[in-house]
Amino acid sequence: MPHKATVVVLLVMLMASVGMSACGGTSNVVTTGATAVTTYNADPAVLNIIAGSEQEKILNEIVVPWCRSHKLTCNYTLKGSVDQATLLAAGTSTYDVYWFASTVFLQVGDKAGKLQHVKPMFITPLVYAGWKSEMAKLGFVGRDVSISEILNAVESGKTTAWLTNPGQSNSGATVFFGFLNYFAGNGPGVALTMPQLDSAPVKDGITRFIRAMDQTPPSSGTLMNDCVKNEATCRSLFVYEALVIEKNLELTAQGHEPLYVVYPKESLAIADAPMGFFPHPGVENSRKDQAFQDLQSYLLSPEAQQKLVSLGRRPVSSIGLTFDHPDAKVFNQEWGIKATLRQRPITYPAADVIQAALARYQTSYRRPTHTIYCLDGSGSMASKGWSDLDQASKLIFDQAIATGYNLQTHPEDVTTVMIFDSAVVGGPWTVEGNDAQKLNGLYDNIHTFKPQDGTNMYACLKQAAQLFNQQANDSHKRLIIVMTDGRSDTDGASEAVGTITSMNIPIISIAFGDADPSQLKELADKTRGSVIVNTNLVDALRQATGYK
Fold first, then answer.
1. What is the mean pLDDT of residues 9-14?
2. Angle, alpha carbons 458-409-51 (nearest 5°)
3. Which residue in 212, 322, 381, 459 is a FRET match for 233, CA 20 to 30 A apart?
């Protein structure tokens, strides 16, 4: 089947107000009644934790209550796996505790062996899940399902499938390496090698799989929330078993149809949630170290492991992926959940193979993308707003920097930049391919622009839609990233949004500055998109670009 030219619009509205609720995904969330983690706190009674979005419920319901009962302040920040790996590799000392979703990105980030006392806290397999009626229609209920059956169902158009971006999120990366191992013909205990990575069966197979995915959000939390909110277009997804259980408990309590799980044969991959301590100089480090080990010991205790089981996680003490006496309301067979799994999980490759595979995802395996950036050049963006945008654009368009965040431009990508105030006043400037000098030229155009005048994002959206309409038969995946910091004039809004909606373009908004929440929510609702809350412009643009 020809690959659908899936169209995604990312409307990045830069809004620092946290009074707006997110319509779908989470980003850089800081919780627990303490201040945001921005600097290191040497107080031995304080533990600053950085963790993936997958751990949010555990942090809220298990970790934070334990910390409070032991007179500890445990602040946590949720960031993606790439963020964690990048911060750890750079030796970032803001955090005492790094809690990865799995060893995949831990290996990439901790080549220097900085973390101490690293242990897995629980395990959860990666699964293929879909609405139960959809899985019944596909004939996947009540039996084992092979990878080839799943791939055929998606490629033939019988269903749609979502996966997180493997270069940004651990769940996507874990599935990614499971399928790479399958296409390489490796059985359990055999890790993918560099020669296999460059072999035709692996390259052809993984390219088919990745390009069959309808959407690739940058985080697991965003994937799950957006899929549930857009069930008409998201019929199935690859995600953690634990997140399916969490979501099904919510859905069934609301009388909603649950998701149904299958465990792909020949490609069982697990996440083991490793947690480690980042040591700091000073006399108080030993007390922090002890507090960390106390927390870790508690999480591995029978009491805490039972609490983790109640949240859909499998205990690390289980034999393989099997454990006795599971709670049938949590590990519910009606949802396809199996407490006993007889498959052996894959073995992950070495760190250099992991990094090479993630780079190939960006520059070879994924579908080429035509991205249109609509950047707010109004007067309110002057000074810090434009300075932040300048920094964010440098990260995206400078390929040396982008590579460090797994955001390289594909050789067949098309990148367009427009700047707007009350109308489009800069561009469109377009680069075809990934020539580093030409992409830096896009940054130079942004760097030299001087913000002025009013704000009308719809003028840029309208022109973006026109550009895409001129390429109606283009097979590129399509993205529009709109960045603005204020309430937009609405001239042309109906036409622009109507056209984008008719093209099945979801608009994903990131909030910042004085942008109007009602405008963002309307765009998300009409286009089956979402709103991402992020107060850091550089992170916001990077996360938006992660939808490629």
1. 42
2. 85
3. 459
Residue 262, pLDDT > 50, answer yes
Under DSSP, is residue 255 helix (H, G, I), strand (E, B) or coil? coil
pTM for this prediction: 0.88
**What gap in Å lies between CA 530 and CA 380, rounded to an integer?**
25
Class of domain 125-270+346-356: alpha beta
Exposed e or buried b per residue across 100-135, where buried means at least 16 C-beta atoms within 10 angstroms of its C-beta: bbbbbbbbbbbeeebbeebebbbbbbbbbbbbbebb
User: Could you give the C-alpha distances from 493 to 11, 111, 388, 416, in angstroms and in order?
Assistant: 14, 50, 27, 21
Helix (H, G, I), strand (E, B) or coil at 524: helix
Look up the CATH superfamily of 9-20+365-545. Answer: von Willebrand factor, type A domain (3.40.50.410)
Integer Cα distance of 413 and 368 in angstroms: 5
What is 156-218 written as a DSSP string? Answer: TTSS-EE---TTT-HHHHHHHHHHHHHHHT--TT----HHHHTSHHHHHHHHHHHHT-SB--S
Checking DSSP bridges between strand 46-51 and strand 30-31, what pairing results, if any? unpaired
Question: Do the bridges between strand 369-376 and strand 414-420 make them parallel or antiparallel, or are there none, so unpaired?
Answer: parallel
Nearest to 175 by CA among 135, 216, 204, 138: 216
Residue 134 and residue 159 in contact, taking contact as beta carbons nearer than 8 Å: yes
Residue 30 pLDDT > 60: no
- CB hemisphere CA count around 65 (13 angstroms): 8
Residues contacting 325, CB < 8 A, separation 6+: none
Tokens of 499: 């056209």
Mean pLDDT of the chain: 88
Bridge-based pairing of strands 9-13 and 477-484 is: parallel
Helix 384-397 with 537-545: angle, nearest 10 deg: 30
User: 411 with 433: CB under 8 angstroms?
Assistant: yes
Architecture of domain 30-123+271-320: 3-Layer(aba) Sandwich (3.40)
In this structure, what DSSP letter does residue 24 have? S
